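DM from R.C. (forwarded with permission)

"hey, sorry to bug you on a friday — could you get me a structure for this? deadline for the figure draft is monday and I only need the backbone to look sensible"
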Amino acid sequence: MNMNFNQIAMIQKLKEEMSHFQKRHPKFPAFLNAISKEALQEGTIIEITVTTLEGKNYCSNLKLSSDDLELIEVLKNMRGK
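My reply, with the result:
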């Protein structure tokens, strides 16, 4: 796979932004690490709730499939862990 300069720059920018995110929210990567080791399996339901400053709530969930778990493994391998 050949990458052009813009793609390499975008990956570097993503890496930097992820580092800043981890510094701002240090408990969140630890949470993701814990669930990736203990809770992610086919059939697991992930629910996400977002509450705006005005108090409006958005909620969604998904049930993990084997394809989802493959994507998660790819993403974990991209991190190098």
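R.C.: lifesaver. Helices lie at 5-24, 27-38, 66-79.
me: no worries. The longest strand covers residues 45-51.
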